[in-house]
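Open question from group meeting: does this chain pack into something compact, or does most of it stay loose? Before anyone orders reagents, we agreed to write out a predicted structure and look at it together. Recording both the input and the output here so the notebook holds the full record.
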Amino acid sequence: MHRFCMVMLLICAGLLLGATQAQAAGLSGEFLGVADAEGARIRIEPDSDGYRGTFYDARGTKQKFSADRTGDVAEAVLDMDGRTVLMRMFPLPYGAEVAIIPFTDDGRLDIPASRTLNFLRAGLKLPKPPPDFVDAPVDPNGRIAGNSFLVSYEFWAPSGVKNGYLSLPDRFRTLLRLYPSVLLDVVWKLCLAPDAGQALAIALRGQGVTCDEVVGWLAAIQESGRFNRFKADVAEDRKFLRASVRCADGYQVSQKLCEEAAQRLSQSAVSLETAATVMARYR
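Structure tokens returned:
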């Protein structure tokens, strides 16, 4: 997952030229495999019946496919590694998540044998991860420190953000609610994740917004040029949230920064801000 995770920060921060246009394009164009899918690529275009395209594996073998459309998701049946599989291709701002689900001999989907591959839209580049970066948890039942989550979540695929959020200590999720701009940034990615109902039920409680509203709002501020201002404000709040976490958990942090973080935390606690009020600032 490491190389795929590296793509997330610049895409989510809106620092790559054309990222908004790439998101708007949906499943159209060329997608290059990263991490476990390195060497594979997919060419796909919409047509009147759904999608048509070609899948190239890492060995250069290609197979053309016709895909059904379910919302923005493409579904096609392919032959892969000697098995018949269902490919579900889900568009994301930076590329696509592709679920590969084999069929059993009697024609049922073999869900336990499924895997997720990650593809980057052609033309986007991978940045270097920051210090303290960690890979996303592979399931929602692990444990991750608040500091590690804050450093890393922007690099993760939406499914990784979901797993990471559910792996956080309850006390950190409570602290995160006091920084609703950062929470909103996390919620945006949770809204893009598959099967994120449990995480969203926790994250959206009392925030006065729905996923449809968040995703629509993000698209609107990207088109209007306000996205960069939002991400800059998120980065500023995340700096103080991370300082609060590091001070509380015994990291080496300057006394001055700990005092500034404590002051900012007190202000946040009495502000009564929510994700909804944050969104209203950028409309």
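Observations to bring back to the group:
The mean pLDDT is 85.
The two ends are 35 Å apart (CA to CA).
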